[in-house]
Amino acid sequence: MASVRPLPEPALEMGIPALADALSDRAPVAVITGAGVSTGSGIPDYRDHNGVWKRGSPMQLKEFTESPSGRQRYWARSLVGWRTVETARPNAAHRSIAALESAGLVGALITQNVDGLHQAAGSREVLDLHGRLDQVECLDCGRVIPRRHHQHQLESANPGWVDAATTAYHTPDGDAELTGVDYRDFVVPGCEACGGMLKPAVVFFGETVPATRVEQAFAAVGRCGALWIVGSSLMVWSGYRFVRAAAAAGTPVYVLGLGVTRGDAEAQGRVTQDCAAGLAAIQSALGQRV
Questions:
Q1: Residue of 49, 94, 118, 130 marked catalytic
Q2: 205 pLDDT tier (thresholds 50, 70, 90)
Q3: pTM for this one?
Q4: Residue 67 three-state SS
Q5: What is the per-residue pLDDT across 118-131, written as a single tens digit (0 to 9) for each?
Q6: Active site residue 130
Q7: Helix (H) and strand (E) counts for the chain?
């Protein structure tokens, strides 16, 4: 189990009207979203409201690339768990953020989620910080294929697997805990072009976010009037560093979500509320101004 980073005290609690005014005064604002935005679409989150892992630590890059049995386990579980992401649809939180972008309140949207639901909801200026789960890449030749195609490959190479596997529960990022299965006979197809190792086109734990994406995110934060954290604990550095950069530049930081975040130490204020309900309330408070 991964260690838990201590959280700061919660930022000053704000009312919805005060947060709406603060954001409106500094529009367009940059937004960082996390798993709390997608839970309403049936995609589980990683941590509880205190930043503690709800389940075992996710697959690490080193295990995936260096352990054949690790890859068997990952793809076997993913073959079943991918259904959760594939069938997920945007919820009210995604739609609210897209509407606030159209109204000019939200500018750049930096998401730590890999489900593509912001784009499906109509958001246009989206940076997928951690990649997209609906794509699979070859680590040898760089070829990228749709996950749907790789799903067919997995199913064809492992007939009857889905029916034989018992799902204990679905976990984040298209994973699933399975019981009563033996992964040793699971066949992991290689790249059709070169036979190389296939990996979902997402940033695994222990992996570095591509430098270009990091630069794009820093640029977006640098030109925003405020930084708004929605539904993320910010427990990993890949997202938290942008809060640090905003605070260092004197850019106000605000938080919306149910749990305390690592960024509460830098935030000017927060609204502790479910993302969908809080975003709807912000829209209502802004009224004709958005």
A1: 130
A2: confident
A3: 0.90
A4: coil
A5: 999 999 999 999 99
A6: yes
A7: 10, 11
